[in-house]
Amino acid sequence: MWRRTDPDPSGTPETRATPRDVEVLERVVEALTEASTSIGEVEDLARETAAATQRVSDRIAGIRTSSDRVTAGTHATSEVVGRPDAVQARITDVLEEQVRMARAVGSAA
């Protein structure tokens, strides 16, 4: 790579790059540029993934809220539908009691 040569006659050390050194440095710069681009793409994908995850989470929360409302509505409807059944059962009990009493009065007379 970088090679230090013997000092020149003035006594100052001389450094120079060989063509191979320049080629290696160019490859390093190219690799770093590509890595930087890849890192940027990964960061973009991470941001997009986070945003998509948040949207999915929001949708799930909305579905849960809707589901809770439907469940509550179904329960309320069941209670309303059950009231006439309870009333009808009570009416049937009262009528049966009246029939028994009428029979008892008819047989006593």
Keywords for this structure?
109 residues; mainly alpha; two-stranded antiparallel ribbon; 1 helix; 2 strands; 4% strand; rod-shaped; Methyl-accepting chemotaxis protein
Report on this model:
The protein is mainly alpha-helical. It has one domain (3-83). Helix content is 83%, strand content 4%. It has one helix spanning 19-108; strands at 3-4, 15-16. Strands 1-2 form a two-stranded antiparallel sheet. The protein is rod-shaped. It starts with a strand and ends with a helix. The relative contact order is 0.04.
What is this structure's SSE topology?
Layout: E1 3-4, E2 15-16, H1 19-108
Antiparallel strand pairs: 1-2
Which percent bin holds the helix content? over 70%
Provide the succession of SSEs. EEH
Average of the residue pLDDT scores:
84
Strand order of the largest sheet: 1-2
Tally of DSSP β-strands: 2
Shape: rod-shaped
Which structural class is indicated by helix and strand composition?
Answer: mainly alpha
H/I helix tally = 1
Distance between the termini: 130 Å
Largest sheet: 2 strands, antiparallel
How much strand content do the residues show?
under 5%
Radius of gyration: 45 Å
Low-confidence residue ranges = none
What's the oligomerization state? single chain
